[in-house]
Design a protein that fits this description.
The protein has about 180 residues and is mainly beta. The chain has a single domain, classed as Beta Barrel (Porin). It is built from one helix and nine strands. It has an eight-stranded antiparallel β-barrel. Strand 4 and strand 5 form a beta hairpin. The protein is elongated.
């Protein structure tokens, strides 16, 4: 009988301990904006997923889609740029305490654009249609003001062709 009680007590303690150190996940969605060379801005969405286990180090993934356009006026017409930007990054996050974490990411970004020139009383002329894929990087801060609430702010950057992309993202997530 004492053996059975000891086994049941050990099982209860181990179950309670494992629930304290259970894996947690966070899914967040937010706004992303990037400044591109020559005054063009892209705007869109960012989603992040974080997986935490019994360690202060965890895994974070981030994906963004952004789009933007800009007109540059001239005396005889105008140039127009349309840009689409996609990125997928992953990397470690480090939890300092229940409230604050930081992360660093690396991955890939892809951009495509369309540059047209419009003159008075003429159809648009396609000047360039650049596409490029390159290494991207990011870093950020995550705050958990409540156990199930996550707020994140981050930086993301890359260079596609001859254009620098430097942006930020902010998001809110649910931790479960």
């Amino acid at each position: 009988m004492k053996t059975l009680q000891t086994i049941l007590l050990a099982a209860a303690v181990s179950l309670a301990a494992s629930s304290v150190f259970a894996d947690t996940q966070t899914a967040s969605v937010g706004y992303a904006q990037t400044d591109v060379s020559h005054g063009l801005k892209t705007k869109g969405a960012n989603v992040q997923y974080r997986y935490e286990w019994q360690s202060p180090v965890s895994l974070l993934t981030s994906a963004s889609y952004q789009t933007g356009d800009k007109r540059f006026n001239h005396a005889t017409g105008y140039d127009k740029w349309d840009v689409d930007y996609y990125s997928f990054l992953a990397g470690p996050a480090y939890r300092f305490n229940d409230l604050v974490s930081v992360y660093a990411l690396g991955g890939v970004a892809h951009g495509k654009g369309e540059h047209t020139y419009h003159t008075n009383n003429r159809p648009a002329i396609l000047v360039d249609n650049p596409k490029d894929t390159s290494v991207a990087y990011g870093a950020g801060l995550i705050i958990n003001p409540q156990p199930n609430l996550s707020l994140n702010v981050g930086y993301e950057g890359t260079r596609l062709k001859k254009y620098d992309f430097n942006g930020f993202n902010v998001g809110v997530g649910y931790r479960f």
